[in-house]
Amino acid sequence: MKVTRRDLLAGAAGAVALGTTAQAQTPAPVDPTKVRGTPSRAMGQRAPAEKTQRFARGNVSSTPHQDLMGIITPSDLHFERHHGGVPAIDPATYALLIHGMVDRPMVFTLADLKRFPSVSRIHFLECSGNLGRTAGPETTPGQLAGLTSTSEWTGVPLATLLKEVGVQAKAKWLLAEGTDAAVLTRSVPIEKALGDAIIAYGQNGEAIRPEQGYPARLFLPGWEGNASVKWLRRIEVSDQPFMTREETSKYTEPFANGTSRMFSFRMDARSLITYPAFPVTLTPGWVEINGIAWTGAGKIARVDVSTDGGKTWTAAKLQEPVLSMAHTRFRHLWQWTGAEAVIMSRAVDVTGYMQPLRAELLKARGPGTAGYHLNPITGWVVQAGGAVIYKEEAWG
Amino acid sequence: MTRTRLVGGSAALGAAVLIVAMTAAATAQGPARFGIGRPATPQEIAALDIDIMPDGTGLPPGRGTSADGAAIYATKCAQCHGKTGKEGPNDVLVGREPRTGFPFSQDPKLPHTIGNYWPYATTVFDYVRRAMPPTAPGSLSDDEVYALTAFLLHANELIAADAVMDRTTLAAVKMPAREHFVPDARQQMPTPTPTPTPTTKPKPKP
Fold this sequence. Notes:
The complex is a heterodimer.
Chain A: H1 5-18, H2 20-23, E1 55-57, E2 60-62, E3 80-81, E4 95-100, E5 106-109, H3 110-115, E6 119-126, H4 141-145, E7 148-157, H5 158-165, E8 173-178, E9 185-189, H6 190-193, E10 198-203, E11 206-207, E12 217-219, E13 232-238, H7 245-250, E14 253-254, E15 260-262, E16 270-275, E17 285-294, E18 300-306, E19 314-315, E20 317-318, E21 328-336, E22 341-349, H8 358-365, E23 379-382, E24 388-390
Chain B: H1 10-23, E1 38-39, H2 42-48, E2 64-65, H3 66-76, H4 78-81, H5 122-131, H6 142-155, E3 164-165, H7 169-172, E4 181-183
Antiparallel strand pairs in B: 2-3
Helix pairs in contact in B: 3-6, 5-6
């Protein structure tokens, strides 16, 4: 397509007039040094060639880890999971009620929450249903396990608010309730609430995105995402759990011994190779295998990589800083000869816990178990021609 | 639902405590209280305090039977949950099979119904009232929710056809699955097997 000066001028004018969207339509000139660039803009946007987006379906969207680097997930690519859609909440009228077994039931506006001393912490957030159990060969890392993302979360420690209302000594649990159409509720042990729980209003330096709970949410580091109730409107302190629908009929895991595990909050250690992975095609030579590892138990101690289908394992390099309960980037240099190979990764956390093989998990949990807290070692097949596909494994 | 009642004059008491706290020298940890936020009124609490606890605390006045609930179910629920609660396409609500055992971990096709999996009957009332139907969440009256709860419990053979569900009877319904739920004892997860210390791969030649 021939691009005339008139087209370029029209494109630049359009970009100014329409703001961000028009910019993407401006074709890149053959020689950028011969054309004056666009002026400054009030709002930035990605380069036009960058087409990354979430894998969205219904009430879920996954982070496209195959497109990302480092450990921070861009806020607009943070995964979503909601049970009644994303509510629209006016920050000017937002209020958080804390009541129940407290000396002083109180209401906090968003401005109130922001007046308290704040903390900022980098943590992953993972949905406990984060595994495509029936994934086929043409599955990207994001489609397989993209319901985990890492952000810097800013807010007020929940312990500060509980001190403000005077939580009573007999308190053992609290109920967190959202302002969405599901009015979603979860019970949270008081130890976590008085520990590292945050009422978060900031994400990666700005206000939390609507999909992540704007204007304020509960954030429980290292725990299954569902318990970090978004759009938080109410906290009720009690001496017993509330047995809500989510924590009884849903986020529970049947075991082979005829029990079902409830209040299984902690997310166990896991890793995911994000490159090379579907839909990448490799050419023989040096390849930097890399990916992310994380654990709700604290820091990742080690990530092992195998390039022979799990026969032998080598410790990968961990990108500093290795943060507690945050994605940790690992890298492993590999010389691919052109022969078919299966690449895998496994995470080990500071407690010594090692990410299990699918067979180990299956043995403990059974083929019928619900799809929560499944963290098996997964792999990718590098085919002789260089195409990389997901190493499909039957569940059961 | 709050089980302890508000104490009159707590706001005045709170203010007095606050002044004492603020005049005390602030430590490195900060003051005992910051004095941010305002007292909640009993009306504000009552407007939001809709949860039902497993012992029935929070259940409102009202009543309903399975017969009352059948008509509401047909109009407002059947299109997503099926004519009898077994057909879907959304969550299967009705079904007691298997009558013995708890083989959910072994049978991927076994639906988790109210009758075979939900551990507390109060949760049905709580969830239906707060979130159903999705097209008009929170629109059902307390009598309608009692009636729907009665319909679903009877369809699951947990109460008699003519049983009246109210704040007393609902809390007394015993769910068969309840005894199978256990708190997290994470040692049930696969025990990691120790592996040899990995060797570091030699650096590639440039």
